[in-house]
Amino acid sequence: MPITLQHYLVLSAILFCIGLYGVLVKRNAVVVLMCIEIMLNGVNIAMVAFSRYIVPTALTGQVFAIFIMTVAAAEVAVGLAIVIAIYRSRQSVDVADINLMKW
Q1: Residue 83, domain member (yes or no)
Q2: What is the mean predicted confidence (pLDDT) over 30-49?
Q3: Contacts for 26-30 with beta carbons within 8 Å, 24 or more apart?
Q4: Into how many domains does the chain fold?
Q5: Do residues 14 and 43 make contact, with C-beta atoms less than 8 angstroms apart?
Q6: 94 has which bridge partners?
């Protein structure tokens, strides 16, 4: 049985749903950042699969996936810096304890 576009899209949707569940349920800020990365990886799989099966000669999906990985790396760097700064001031990385933006 050959692997079709639907197989890749199901894998992409599963990864995205796992990441979304983690973002909505988990309380640790580092785990939330990791779940956002899982969501972005699901999107990358969908982009590359669409590019491969719809326009096989163009590399547009792969190029967009590289851009998404670059943005994800920047997001992780900034997010971890924020988490470390909050941990130093609050001694906790629990999302419920982070209320620095409140008056």
Answers
A1: yes
A2: 94
A3: 26/95, 27/94, 27/95, 27/96, 28/93, 28/94, 28/95, 29/79, 29/83, 29/86, 29/93, 29/94, 29/95, 29/98, 30/80, 30/83, 30/93
A4: 1
A5: no
A6: 28
Structure tokens at 97: 């304890």
Residue 100 in any domain: the answer is no
pLDDT digits (tens, 9 = 90+) for 6-16: 999 999 999 99
Reported as a pLDDT band with limits 50, 70 and 90, residue 101 is low
| Residue at 101 is within a domain | no
CA distance to 28, 36, 44, per residue, from 7 (Å): 32, 22, 14
- Tell me how far apart the alpha carbons of residues 80 and 68 are, in angstroms, rounded to a whole number: 18
Yes or no: say if 19 and 35 are a contact pair by the CB < 8 Å rule.
Answer: yes
For the domain that residue 43 is a member of, what is the CATH number?
Answer: 1.10.287.3510
Query: What is the per-residue pLDDT across 42-91, written as a single tens digit (0 to 9) for each?
Result: 999 999 999 999 988 888 889 999 999 999 999 999 999 988 988 898 88
